Amino acid sequence: MTNLKRVYLLALGILLQASVTFASNDEGGWTDLFDGKTLQGWKVLGGQAPFKMEDGAIVGTTTLNTPNTFLVTEMDYGDFVLELDIKLGAEINSGVQTRSHFNPNLNNGKGAVYGRQVEIDPSDRKWSGGIYDESRRQWLYPLSLNTEAQNLYKAGEYNHIKVECIGNETKTWLNGKPVAYVIDTIDRSGFIGLQVHSISKQSDAGHKIYFKNVRIKTSNLQPEPFPSDIFVVNMQPNSLSNHEKQSGWKLLFDGKTTDGWVGAYKTTFPQKGWVVNDGTLTVLSSDGAESTNGGDIVSREKYGAFDLTFDFKLSPGANSGVKYFVTLQENNKGSAIGLEYQIVDDKLHPDANLGRDGNRTLASLYDLITANKPARFLHPTGEWNTGRVVVYPDNRVEHYLNGAKVLEYVRGSKDFKNLVAISKYNKWPKFGEAPQGHILLQDHGNEVSFRSIKIRKLK
Questions:
Q1: Residue pLDDT, tens place only, 211-267
Q2: Cα(316)–Cα(344) distance, rounded to whole angstroms?
Q3: Local structure of residue 421 (DSSP, 8 states)
Q4: Using CA atoms, how far apart are residues 146 and 152, in angstroms rounded to an integer?
């Protein structure tokens, strides 16, 4: 055999192998990730649930006594658009991993997959299309942030998933409708994986999960627009994406200056008690009393209907708060008066045990309504948490903690007035009912840091 023939046959073999692994279908740059017959180019990680091919679909089967199992690509991907169809044989959880990894030290040394996952959730919670961080940070985008997408999943049918990962942004669509939007700071590349979730009951064993029409595009990518009213989880501190800017969001803290803030009942920013350092705005520890050091600070601008988000980090045993509809008309001593999103170390600060039925705990409407916060949505003291307050034009109000809605009420309603009447606020007429007011960050004498304070006016 001549050298020329050897080179030709070698090249032909490489091309044939590539065509078996991932076949390009030449449709707008898409590449099929399955040949419809084999699992070439994929491997199983994390557990022992089986995957096999059936009638052109990949089928995973739930298996008792094994952790979450993933069929993952042998290749890593950076920027891409991924599409696939998925059908659940029963009401069992599943998901699609993106830019994910494997850590052999997790799960008591047995190893586990970790990374961002597009959730498939047929339960009454209805969070299909949301974004979960497997084996790491847990929920990044629960569908409490986009309730209109909760009914997109179709039980017993194939559901079409689209995932766009470009730069630090991940967007999801379910059955052609936009669902979730996350801007992250980690994992710019990684493998793609298909999940068979672990089960704990024998009655859940043997159920099948079907995946088909799995294809990917990695070049000539153009971000697809998202509706302006869909909330964005932006984990880049003190930043606004182009989408957020176009949707009307403004930074109340730029990470560098105190522009836009003054001391409560003052015309300038406090000379002591507050510091800006390394992208955070921190109220310093003093004696643990209200407004006796630097004092509260308030936004220069007043707001009526709005969407407000903020990151906060508590020191052990700390107490603070974010107040809204602060009018500064009371001229009271101590902290200025307003509706308060409570920020407190529930375990170590005594105020969390006062009030009624926990209405002075973290994320509560202070002294009025208790936050119903699932434990998995609470980040430990010393780590960053994200609060959110939404005030709609019709006076409906919602509090969120790390994406989970923890309470809701209507300003000025009969129920609201009844709560005010038995609270510490009953001495102020029409408390919390002003048409607009300042945003306030409280000085309660404990060290608490803030960042990524942003607001959008609602109409």
A1: 999 999 999 999 999 999 999 999 999 999 999 999 999 999 999 999 999 999 999
A2: 9
A3: H
A4: 11
Same fold, 22-217 and 238-457: yes
CA distance 50 to 28: 33
pLDDT digit string (tens) for 165-212? 999 999 999 999 999 999 999 999 999 999 999 998 898 899 999 999
Give the amino acid at 31: T
Domain residue ranges of the chain, discontinuous segments joined by +:
22-217, 238-457
> Are 291 and 265 spatial neighbours (Cβ–Cβ below 8 Å)?
no
Distance from chain centroid for Cα 3? 58
Closest CA to 198 of 72, 96, 60, 67: 67
- Identify whether the C-beta of residue 459 lies closer than 8 Å to the C-beta of residue 351: no
pLDDT single digits (tens) 296-348: 999 999 999 999 999 999 999 999 999 999 999 988 888 999 999 999 999 99
| The two three-digit tokens of residue 354, written as one number | 């006062």
Query: Kindly report the CA angle at 368 between 365 and 374, in degrees rounded to 5?
Result: 50
- What is 22-217's CATH number? 2.60.120.560
Q: Which residues contact 24 (CB under 8 A, 6 or more apart)?
A: 30, 31, 32
First vs last C-alpha separation in the chain: 78
Please tell me the distance from the alpha carbon of residue 404 to that of residue 401, in angstroms, as a whole number.
Answer: 5
CA distances from 44 to 24, 60, 106, 416 (A): 23, 11, 16, 54
Q: What are phi and psi of 90, to 5 degrees?
A: -160, 180
- What count of residues does the chain have? 459
Q: What share of the chain is helix, strand, coil (3-state, %, to 5)?
A: 10, 40, 50
Any idea which architecture 238-457 has in CATH? Answer: Sandwich (2.60)
Contact between 432 and 341 under an 8 Å Cβ cutoff? The reply is: no
Phi, psi of 41 (to 5 degrees): 90, 5
Alpha carbon distance 18, 320 (integer Å): 59
